[in-house]
Amino acid sequence: MLAVSTTTIGRAAQMLALLAIIGLSSVSARGDSLADSEREAAILEQAHALRGRAGIAQLIGNLKEAESLHRRAIELVKNNYGPHHRDLPLLLGSLASFYKSQGRLGEAEQLNNEAIAGDLRGGRIPAFLPMRLDNAEIMLSEGRLDEAEVAFKDALAIEASDRDYGNRSRKGLASIHFMRKNWAAAADLWEAVINDSVAIQQETKRYQSQLPAASESVSMIGNVDAFYGYVEAAFRLSNQQPSSRLLLASKAFEKAQWVLDSRASQSIRQMVARASAMGGTASSNNFRTRQDLVARWRTLKEQRDVAVRGGTWSSNSSQSTTIVAEMNAIDDQLIELDRLLATDRPEYLRIAAPSSVEIESLQKVLHADETLVLPLFVPANGSEPALVYVWSVRNDGLSWNRIEDIGETVEQTIAALRCGLDTSSWKADRGFGCSAFGLRYTDDDLLDHRPLPFDTQRASRLFDRLFGPLSNDLLGRDIILVPSGALSSLPLQVLVTQRPRATDGASDVAWLVKSSPVSVVPSVSAFLALRMAANPSRANRTMAGFGNPLLDGKSDDPNSTRLAREAKNSETCATVGQFHVATSVEAAERLQARSPVLDAATLRRQPPLPETADELCKIAGNLKADPADVWLGARATEHIVKHLSRIGELERYRILYFATHAALADQVSGATDAGLILTPPPTASEEDDGFLSASEIATLRLDADWIVLSACNTAGGLKHGEEPLSGLAQAFLYAQARALLVSHWAVDSKATVQLMTSTFARMSEDPKIGRARALQQAMIEMAKSSEYLNRPEIWAPFVFVGDSFEQLARR
pTM for the full model? Predict the structure, then answer.
């Protein structure tokens, strides 16, 4: 855009209004009364406005309108200033990019050539690089490798110092070597891009802290395609050079970790870093202050971005002035905090920052009977199919497997398996539809609580595809899974390790849970931080429990009325056990948020859960906890939880146990957060509306070894389909929980009581058993106890998140 004075821009705005009235074609004839520079500024303003509107039209799928707007912008400049105006290359390049995105490669290349010629005439050699790189990529996609190689090398020679252009050229050259089957050269070029991308992330690590409701994707690393390319080139090179297989597998494992970093992983690292420095110095308070400041900075950034996207952002408005001033103030505070931390606690920044763990460092902390499993899902790229890589790491070895994800994909297989685990798969199409997999489950089946159609043959085939070559590393060992892709939505224990026979009954199935306990960690670096750096909790009380919220259920449902009465009769552990424990029913209705609080009336219509009082009191008894530390009924409120946090009582408990309903954000109209349902107050307020949201959980002050979320869907993200462990789980990790027990789907309340009491009883009997193994044994025992409980939908929803042997085993 032409640089002009503020006065000229003001007059240009007037000119725009005139243009709208008299029509674009009349500019030359009727604009003589304005100075030439003012007239030019107005025309260019209009042209770039058209280009901007074209981009919006493309985003919303109005492709004809987008093309028309691009062409109008070009014609406006050409008609008034001819084919050689300095802004024309940019407008031509924009239309070329549009054509490229639509697969109209020949037209795109021709326009780019015209734009490049215009830039060369103007003497702006670096300016034509985007168009030249676009053309190089077109040549590459059409298999014109020699031409593409020349174009990429020329671009790299012109502007090698520019990171974006340089890395784009290197990725193009790497792809050319890959297509020529020169795996080593391809890997070297992709590795150069990876090293630069990591350096860029480390330079901006001040803003790597995350909080629930942040909008970032799973990984914040740039040039993800280079990481994928490197892994594939390394795998092919390892087959070509068997003697280098272990080295290449190790390097690929380390690079894959950068792609899989997550908000939950970041929260664990920051929690461990904060906990590792506790001990009375002034810096111990600086850790939480720093994280809270970064969280506030990100919130302000999101507010700014929303205003910009909505067209309401103005640099002169009071809103923008306030936001920018606060962001700048936070920048200054973070610089000072980092200076203090670097001096007093340098290990904080080392632990908290995103990182990749070397194989040797991981193997040093793994026990002899443990295997860490890392899957990486690589999307399809052109003619290359989607791929899945799986690494298994023992303390004495490393293996990896690669599958081409063709036919029924892993994601489709897992969707089919979830149809046999989660009733909601039959109520709402999550992407595939259960009937498409040849499965059948009717409304009558659902009403009669018949078993869901879990396909054990599919579960066996999936195990063979992903883990068959690695089975010796898994079976009979403790498995530590770093989930990614579709595997994030499936508890590994439901896979089947041997092909089922037609005569097998449910008790004969070779479930993975029978062979191996499974724990989940968000990343390799989070696992290493937990095992090596986390200090034990300083809490001196055993457990605080919250459950049995006072809810009414449906007013016209006699069963709800009975359960509500039982809940009111079970508000202390002294009165629990005097009622019949009932299986929970489905949620009454979608929750309604009336900003900034939840609608208490809708909340009260959720099903009562009197059985959770029995669950909490039995667990407290097994752990020899004080019954007064179990808050039930009218005492199980959001206000109580927040109050205990404010006065420092909540951080005195090693275990926090919530037995109640949970809701994802898309189950609460108008909400952006997941949350837990507690007893609604008579009048809702921001302090207490009965819904303890993820954002509110993140502000709690905890020092817990373990959080148990005995509720539905607590392993998920903020919403269905989002990054796993990014909702309630991540919020508790941020608040300083070292490990969690969470669920993948709606749980059966009666079965949950049995499973949780059995898990904790085993831990009381043998504190060194490890939490994942205690859960495994409880699942196996429960499945054996009755035909109803021997259904994976009943015994399998919970997973342990964290280091199974960390903390409690040390006591």
Answer: 0.80
